[in-house]
Amino acid sequence: MLYYLVIGICILLLVAVIYISAKPISMGIEARRNIPKDISKDDYENENEFSDNDNFIQKNLSDEITRLNNLKNQGVITEDEYKKAKEKLLG
């Protein structure tokens, strides 16, 4: 009897978690669908705010690669980990 009670509570908790998380997940999916896909790089370069944002991203990317290189030189990460992380940043 206790076994069925525990399983029932687990199922109720699972249903509650799914119910609570469904709305935020659907909002995220909807937001992703609304991202415009027809914006080209030329459009970004024509807008100062986007151009400044690209410069920030480039500087941040350089800082991250430098940080990774320092970690590799200190022996914190291996060469393979460095290459994977660098490709992830650049990809």
Explained architecture:
With 91 residues, this protein is mostly helical. It has two domains: 1-35; 40-91. The protein is 85% helix and 0% strand. It contains four helices and no strands. The longest helix is centred in the N-terminal third of the chain and has 32 residues, at 2-33. The protein is elongated and about 60 Å long. The mean pLDDT is 79.
What distinguishing features does this structure have?
91 residues, mainly alpha
Helix/strand layout:
Elements lengths: L1 H32 L7 H6 L1 H27 L4 H12 L1
Helix pairs in contact: 3-4
Number of domains: 2
Write down the Rg.
Answer: 23 Å
The overall average pLDDT, rounded, is: 79
Helix content: over 70%
What structural class is derived from the secondary structure elements?
Answer: mainly alpha
Number of strands: 0
* Subunit organisation of the chains: single chain
* Low-confidence blocks of residues: none
Secondary-structure element order, N to C: HHHH
Percent strand equals under 5%
Helix tally? 4
Distance between the termini: 55 Å
Largest sheet: none
Could you say which overall geometry the principal axes of the C-alpha atoms support? elongated
In short:
With 91 residues, this protein is mostly helical. It is 85% helix and 0% strand.
